[in-house]
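Human: Cast an eye over this sequence-structure pair and say how the chain folds.
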Amino acid sequence: MSQELAVAAPPSAVRAVWNSPLYRGATVALFLSGLGVSAAAPQIALFLVDDLHASLSTAGLYYLTNVTAPIAGYLVGARSDRTGKRLGLFRLCALAGFLGWCAMAASGQLWMPFVVSALVLGFAGAAGSQLFAAVHDDLQATASPVGDGVVSIVRMALTAGWIVGPVAGSLLATATSPRVMLVATGACTLAQIFPMGFKRERPKPAFEPTAEPEAKLERAPGLRIMLPLLVFTGLYVLIYAGEPIKYGYLPIYLHDDLHLPTAVSGAVIGIQPLIELILMPVAMVVARRIGLMRLMVLGAAFGVGANLCFALTANAVGMFAGQILMGGVWGVFAALGIIVAQRLLPQAVATASAIFMSSTAIASALGGLTGGLGVNLLGLPHVFLVPALYGVIATVGLAVMSRSRHAVR
């Protein structure tokens, strides 16, 4: 067939990820990151109680150490934006994570995991944000027409890791010990480096007038410039705060109050990440039609509906409905949140990525505090009315942002 009759294949995000060593490596690396961290997350309290003999209340305080993660993320992101060395900082953060998880596994005193988490693992969490910044830079340099789709696929890999990790971590901890599981988490964190190989940032041609990479800044952006990003991240924190409440108290409610069979309870808990993974590519398509911020308003409203289902329905159907709606929440925010954050601070995408991704630590602390106080005041299941209220505030805030000059299309 002549070249004139040959039809070029339309741009494809999947093809772009497969053909690019950077995108492909970032996808595998973030899957390993999600796998390792999610394997450890449900087991840490058990490790503190059983191996280091902490009380339940003391073990619960461990999660407050996560509040240092946004500070570490900001420091790494600001350094990355000044130097443009995304992948070098990514490798250092991954190495810090390996050393931190191994140090935690070797802990012989109760204070050690708290110090390690506060001072070391916060920097480890910044590794993923550097990958997203590197992917963003490359997409900008190549003017890819499927950039949002590439970012969504890379983000889906992190979600896939979080689906597999809790089960894998539980099985490994049961078959061996929590300490072995923590070492395995460290190994997954270090293994992020290998899919990236010796890949370096894409250099800009020296003859271009703007030879300095777009990502480099002489100084960190000021508070006024960062304000839209900070507002958006704060609203995201309100939405995410319901997750630790749900995972802490929904299984108890299903078992002790609704008396659901174990298989049904497991299906209720497990359906959310499945729905989330299915809806992430759908969210990208819908966002192109109605806009990113408008879709996020709808996603936040799903969260309100989900928590109202948990609080008011008192049956298995309502619990499934709530989890399906929650899958819709994270199908939207997991796919689009990092894209919106980067567009709200385009001159410092590493800082934006780090602030947004580390905000889950603040949300976990807020959710843990809210759940502990709320369950004493309101009891089960009415404690879920509090994250529903948070969701209403977030929905209104996002609706206002979607109509402001800071709206991201």
Summary: The chain is about 75% helix and 0% strand. The CA atoms of residues 244 and 393 lie 18 Å apart.
